[in-house]
Amino acid sequence: MKPEIAIIGGGYAGLACAVTLARADVRVTVFESSRVLGGRARVVEKDGSRIDNGQHIMIGAYSQTLQLMRQVGVSPKWLETRPLTMHYPGRMHLKAANLPSPLHLAVGLLRASGLDWKDRFAAARLIRYLKKRKWQLGADKPVTNLLLDAGQTLRLRELLWEPLCIAALNTPPRRASAQIFANVLRDSLGAGASASELLLPRVDLSELFPVPAARWLAMHGHRVSTLDQIKGIRIEDGVFWLDGGPKWAGFHHVVIATAPYHALPLIEPFPELARLRQQIEALEYEPILTTYLAYDESVRLPEPMIGMSGGHIQWLFDRAQFGGPPGLLAAVISAHGPHEALDKAELEVLIQEEIHTLLGRLPPPQWIKTIVEKRATFACKPGLDRPSHRTAVPGLWLAGDYVAGDYPATLEGATRSGVRTALAVLASL
Ligand SMILES: Cc1cc2nc3c(=O)[nH]c(=O)nc-3n(C[C@H](O)[C@H](O)[C@H](O)COP(=O)(O)OP(=O)(O)OC[C@H]3O[C@@H](n4cnc5c(N)ncnc54)[C@H](O)[C@@H]3O)c2cc1C
User: Fold this and answer.
1) 42 within ligand 1 shell (Cβ under 6 A)
2) Residue with CA nearest ligand 1 atom 19
3) Rounded distance from Cα 423 to ligand 1 centre (Å)
4) Structural domain range at position 237
5) φ and ψ at 420, to 5 degrees?
6) Of the chain's two ends, which shows fewer C-beta atoms within 10 Å, N or C?
7) Is the beta carbon of 410 within 6 A of some atom in ligand 1?
8) Residue 199 · residue 80 · CB < 8 Å
9) Is residue 297 one of the residues assigned to a domain?
10) Which CATH number belongs to the domain containing residue 292 in this structure?
11) Model confidence band, residue 76 (pLDDT cutoffs 50, 70, 90)
12) Does the beta carbon of 378 sit less than 6 angstroms from any atom of ligand 1?
């Protein structure tokens, strides 16, 4: 009899786990409570348009995600490759050169506008500082301390490292883990030139991996059940029983691949998971706010994604350059901040004013939609005690962006976790 494995959660981690397991000789069932696959990286409908719940920056270093996409038949054409570019209109333009590493960065820094020699030397100093320590900091500390220890200039901190920290860790530098930031820099700026390239998805986030993964699973005889929330887990005669749509189906192994706060009710019945419960309860969360503005088709940005400083918007995306409709902009505000004191209508007005300051006065957008993900990611704090993929209940596993690993809460963190758990399940069979 083939082992039956249940995966609770059809986000990037759950589906990465399912695809990896399905490639071995086991039977997999994925349960997803929502109608749409993808979890925190999913498509949302607005007036007939398909938009993402948030802008997702992917880079060449996302090797696990890219491998899984290939395995389920996603065409490489769905990701457009661009050199790493940090564009702050009127303040800084830094673009990695089309050269092998580390020249791509060195030449990019040399050619950058808006930086002086002090900044260029300081940037090289940070990479040298981390390389000398083999990207290991010993005791973890906040990113702000790392930047000060490595003598970074105010301009570099403001226009390069702090925005990169917020983009990658979704945590303000004064509260973010320098070690996890160093891991991200190691695998992007510190690796081959292609690792730091920006990958711009030209399809929505559900179509990018979750939907093709579900199709691939179905074609190989596995089951993906949407609108199927698992409400409870119990063990009887050495088998896990899940309370879902078809009511209490039995499995040999169960992987909980939900966001951490959704895992809590599922582990509640198991007294041996008290420590895991404490670890999850101790996590804090950071929000991400995205405001879509559907302007006239002629509205365009000089780059697919530009940095903004001095106001509320941190990044502005031109969705047309991601395969979306012309004129559709997406303004992003990551992590906790003063914007949370404003109501939605007030903030939408301020966002439009900031866009007008950048692009000149524009006619009002045809529509505006703000999506707030209140618990978009865990706060990636120094020395965070993240749970292991292996729980104290044999056969019950965890996968997800918050599970212990090298990466912050990202698509790559989620897929790596899913694959790691799948390999551990297979090794235990
Ligand atoms: C707005 C926003 C912007 C982001 N930007 C980036 C970015 O630029 N780059 C990047 O790499 N990452 C980014 N991220 C982070 C990335 O989206 C997440 O790290 C990743 O999607 C987490 O995947 P996951 O599978 O671990 O969890 P989730 O995506 O949360 O998946 C869990 C799934 O479990 C389901 N579920 C929950 N409970 C149950 C239950 N009881 N029964 C059945 N199903 C259940 C949920 O519906 C969900 O589909 C962003 C996230 C957000 C919200």
Assistant:
1) no
2) 410
3) 21
4) 4-43+203-283+382-428
5) -60, -45
6) N
7) yes
8) yes
9) yes
10) 3.90.660.10
11) confident
12) no
